[in-house]
Write a structure and sequence with these properties.
heterodimer, A: about 325 residues, alpha/beta, eight-stranded mixed beta sheet, 11 helices, globular, B: about 350 residues, 10 helices, 12 strands
């Protein structure tokens, strides 16, 4: 049995705003092993980014607040660490790349200086040593003419190149986990394919674990080993990737897969849309968060929020209804 | 196909945006070659897709067709009228027949107007209705796009993204146009909402016999909704054919790479796919490459590609392509040339 690298238990995050308390993450639990690639899928506002930011304690507080839970990394609880301790984890052992590579770089510092920063801070390198390593890193992520390009500013890089530089920075200290928060959403498909290919290559070479957050079920299909689907701040389904796509058990997952047109589909069919709107998170629902949009909802769904239950080996879903029979689950 | 089937004909359309220097006396020092000589037809009742990556000129094409940008040269023939030659009142009268749905449902609705005012405004401007009639028409339109008619005195901020896009659709439909240009109408929406809006557009097309120019970067959605598809790269159309042919027999190396880059939501299929990964980025449209514009990233480019721009040819019935490596009978020569 491989060692657990990360174990998150019952994580809850709230934002106390003037309009009320937003329950962004409502008791999320998952575990991952070393070198594993985990996909987290969900629509905007479902809490997928907040889950990761909470784990790394990057939630602005106030208004944000971690209500409960623990996040064990190599057995140490990230949520109980002092500020000093967590700083040694962030960027060194767990690093993160973000959606928008334009706003996540400082526009007035050169790319070289910014990629060098974690090396100087975490590995105590001198500026000169760090810069040498930066050139190697930029070459590793496929930036041509890296020796010259380290002196460039972020605006001189294209979107795809900035995302490559960001990956170089994230990998500079050989992290155990790389968290990728929709890193290809702002990019064109041909550039997206380049970046995904790059991440796959680096994963195989360096052996880090990856948590890939996205709303695109297509990207995850070719990348992750296990997938979790989030909705309204809850994990509602989790399974190995092939099992999830072949045998989805939650009506929301089924709806999402049905609403996607497929490139390899020659017959035209009407897209199965999910009616209604994503939930507002001002209160923790007593019912299933998906019930208002669910076609198979039964009475129990309105009274009680389902918990994640195992329905097949390593396949868990939070739904009172057995979608195969349309009747209540025993 | 007879000439009667054609609703709109675009011929050699060119749009350059000048780049100027100087504060008081502005000199033109260059131009962005946003659209650089494209020709195509849109047939009555069809959905023509226009796909390409950001900055390839697909939105500029849409706006230039509607004369929201005046073209640098070329013509846009709607029915038997050349829109490029029209001005002022004459042009405004033609606008009735062509409407647009925009990408960003947050920016394309005036936040200070109620939904009723937004949807009703085109009716008043074009004298299609007045007084009480406007309100009736607005309510009908809102119901048509799946919104509650009682919402007409609410403001755009009270609606979600998907609902706002429905308001945009209602506004476009108000004048009963023949042609609607949809400029990435779903790319700002969540996945589960995208399908709602696409289904709505399809239903409306069936009901009113609308013609769509559907601009998008999402190839799977384009395959789903369009009858014919044109692929743009850096200001020119590189390939145009019906949707089946484009996906089953893509000829241009760019189309092939674009198709292979789109992920398919099925792990079993993904495992077996071979990707064509293009090197580098799209070059700047200020100074596009000589000859074929795709040659800098093309895995099959050879020296001649830098010398001459490939002709726009019909290699099989209805299948147009601009590539030196495609033969006159529609076969791509895949031999690598050093």
């Amino acid at each position: 049995m491989p060692k657990k690298l990360l174990e998150v238990q019952g994580l809850e995050t709230l934002f106390k705003t003037r309009e009320g308390v937003i329950h962004a993450v409502n008791g999320v639990s998952f575990a991952m092993e070393e070198g594993e690639t985990l996909g987290i899928v969900g629509e905007s506002g479902c809490g997928k980014s907040v889950t990761m930011l909470s784990m790394l304690r990057l939630i602005p507080s106030p208004p944000g607040e971690i209500g409960a839970g623990e996040a064990l990394f190599h057995g140490d609880d990230l949520l109980k660490m002092t500020d000093e301790e967590i700083r040694h984890v962030r960027g060194a052992q767990i690093s993160m790349i973000f959606q928008d590579p334009m706003t996540s770089f400082n526009p007035v510092l050169t790319i070289g200086l910014q990629v060098a920063e974690p090396l100087e801070i975490h590995q105590g390198m001198s500026r000169k040593q760090a810069m040498k390593r930066v050139v190697e890193l930029l070459e590793l992520v496929g930036i041509p003419n890296a020796k010259e390009r380290v002196k460039d500013y972020p605006h001189q890089f294209s979107g795809g190149m900035r995302q490559r530089a960001m990956i170089a920075m994230a990998l500079s200290c050989n992290p155990g986990i790389l968290i990728a928060d929709e890193p290809t959403t702002a990019l064109d498909v041909t550039i997206q394919a380049q970046i995904i290919e790059l991440v796959k290559r680096l994963r195989d070479e360096l052996g880090m674990a990856i948590i890939w957050i996205t709303h695109d079920l297509g990207i995850i299909a070719g990348l992750a080993k296990r997938v979790f689907v989030m909705y309204g701040g809850y994990f509602i389904e989790g399974a190995p990737v092939k099992e999830l796509y072949r045998n989805p058990q939650h009506p929301y997952t089924i709806g999402l897969l049905g609403s996607l047109p497929r490139l390899d589909e020659s017959q035209r069919r009407r897209l199965a849309s999910i009616d209604g709107q994503p939930p507002v998170l001002f209160e923790r629902p007593a019912s299933c968060p998906f019930a208002p949009r669910c076609k198979s909802a039964i009475e129990r769904c309105w009274k009680e929020n389902p918990t994640l239950e195992t329905v097949a080996p390593d396949h868990r879903t939070a739904c009172w209804v057995d979608v195969n029979t349309g009747r209540a689950r025993q | 196909m007879t000439a009667n089937d054609v609703l709109l004909r675009v011929e050699n359309l060119v749009k350059y945006f000048p780049i100027t220097q100087g504060i008081i006396i502005q000199r033109q020092i260059g131009a962005v070659h946003a659209v650089d000589g494209i020709s195509f037809d849109i047939r009555k009742g069809e959905t023509l897709g226009l796909v390409g990556e950001s900055g390839c000129g697909k939105s500029t094409t849409g706006r230039t067709i509607l004369q929201l940008y005046r073209p640098t040269s070329g013509s846009v023939i709607f029915g038997d009228v050349d829109l490029v030659k029209l001005k002022g009142e004459e042009l405004r009268k033609m606008r009735r027949y062509m409407q647009m749905i925009f990408q960003d449902p947050y920016a394309s609705l005036n936040p200070r107007m109620t939904v009723g005012e937004i949807v009703g405004e085109p009716l008043i401007i074009h004298h299609m209705a007045s007084g009480k009639e406007v309100q009736e028409r607005v309510e009908n339109l809102l119901e048509l796009v799946g919104l509650n008619a009682a919402f007409s005195n609410r403001y755009p901020h009270e609606f979600s993204g998907g609902q706002r896009q429905r308001i945009g659709v209602a506004r476009a439909l108000a004048l009963q146009p023949n042609l609607i240009i949809c400029d990435e109408p779903i790319s700002a929406l969540d996945v589960s909402i995208q399908a709602q809006v696409v289904n709505l557009l399809e239903d409306l097309q069936k009901q009113f016999g609308l013609t769509y120019l559907f601009i998008a970067h999402d190839l799977s959605m384009v395959r789903h909704i369009c009858d014919r598809v044109a692929v743009m790269y850096l200001g020119i159309i590189v390939e145009l054919t019906n949707q089946k042919e484009l996906y089953n027999n893509p000829l241009h190396p760019y189309t092939q790479a674009l198709l292979s880059a789109v992920p398919i939501p099925d792990p079993v299929v993904e495992e077996q796919r071979r990707r064509i990964i293009l090197e580098g980025d799209v070059p700047s449209p200020v100074n596009p490459p000589s000859g074929c514009r795709f040659r800098t990233r093309c895995p099959l480019a050879y020296s001649y590609c830098a010398e001459a721009q490939p002709d726009w040819r019909e290699v099989q019935p209805g299948h147009f392509v601009a590539c030196h490596r495609v033969s006159d009978t529609g076969i791509l020569d895949k031999k690598e040339v050093m």
